[in-house]
Amino acid sequence: xxxxxxxxxxxxxxxxxxxxxxxxxxxxxxxxxxxxxxxxxxxxxxxxxxxxxxxxxxxxxxxxxxxxxxxxxxxxxxxxxxxxxxxxxxxxxxxxxxxxxxxxxxxxxx
Length: 110
What we know:
Helix content is 76%, strand content 0%. With 110 residues, it is mostly helical.
C-alpha cells in the first residue's frame, strides 16, 4: 500500500490524466519531478483507456448503427467514470476488464 503522502502529492496529476491525451501528457510531465507511484498508476490507466477508445471508436463508427455506437459510448463512459472516481478517492484500483492489461502494457511509464 502506498503512503498517504504519495497519494496526496500525486492526486492532482492522477485526476488531470483523465482529461484526454493532453491531460495524460501534462500529468506525465508534471509528475516527472514528484515521481508519485499513485499518479503513474492512473496515468497508465488513462493512457490505455484513451488509446483503446481511439482504436475502437473508428471501427465502431463505421457500423452506422446507433445501438452499437450508443453501447460503445456507454461502456467507455462507465470505465472512464470508474477510473476518474478512483483517482478522486485516492485508490489504486484497476479499471475492470482492461486495467491490469494497461498496467503491464505501459509498465515502462514510471
